[in-house]
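Hi C.,

You asked whether I'd gotten around to modeling the 240-residue construct. I have! Everything is below, sequence then structure, no commentary in between.
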Amino acid sequence: MSNPKYKRVLLKISGEALAGDAGRGLDFDVIGRVCEVIKKCSAEGVQVGVVVGGGNFWRGVKDGGDKMERTRADHMGMLATTLNCLAVADVLEQHGVPVRVQTAIEMRSIAEPYIRSRAIRHLEKGRVVIFGCGTGNPFFSTDTAAVLRAAEIDADVILLAKNIDGVYSADPRKDASAVKYDAITYDEILAQHLEVMDSTATSLSMDNKIPVVLFALKDPENIYRVVMGEKIGTVIKEVK
């Protein structure tokens, strides 16, 4: 049996992915399948950190629009991520996986405050750590939070689980001639203005030399496949 390619990973899951086909709220069948695969990775000795988005409940810029002050709208988005963190944590525990939730905004009654050394200690003990509230600051996406936490915990790779199976030269839903890349550089992502992550997240991963693998969460087993070294989705790194 092959060994995992990565020892410590940061898995980013969008809130929309947790909503399943409904697009809003929580689909516990989807969450259950994701948690089964996280358990499978953990059983292989892989240390797993998770950042979850909140778009299935609230997206600060999109939902707040010009109706709310941006900072307050983003704070609501951070609370939305916490809802998702608690849901994923509960399902992981139902699957027998030890888990801790840490939030960038203190809410000690329901989660630990984010402390880097404590997070790393949890990972070393085989616990899954779920990071909530993004970076704790407005104007920053949860993709940026994922890169930041990956850098802080010294993750080997960022696993970007999306509703698309890789990086394309254009939106494949709108352009039939769009080409899927097996590998692409950070510079190419920025130069072509590809909507993979926001530019802040892309630049931060480039500056810290953290590879990113983008793949479809439609089949949660893709998480395990990537961890074990299979060529799934698109690899984003310094050089091809």
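If it helps when you're writing up: The CA atoms of residues 101 and 110 lie 8 Å apart.

Thanks,
B.
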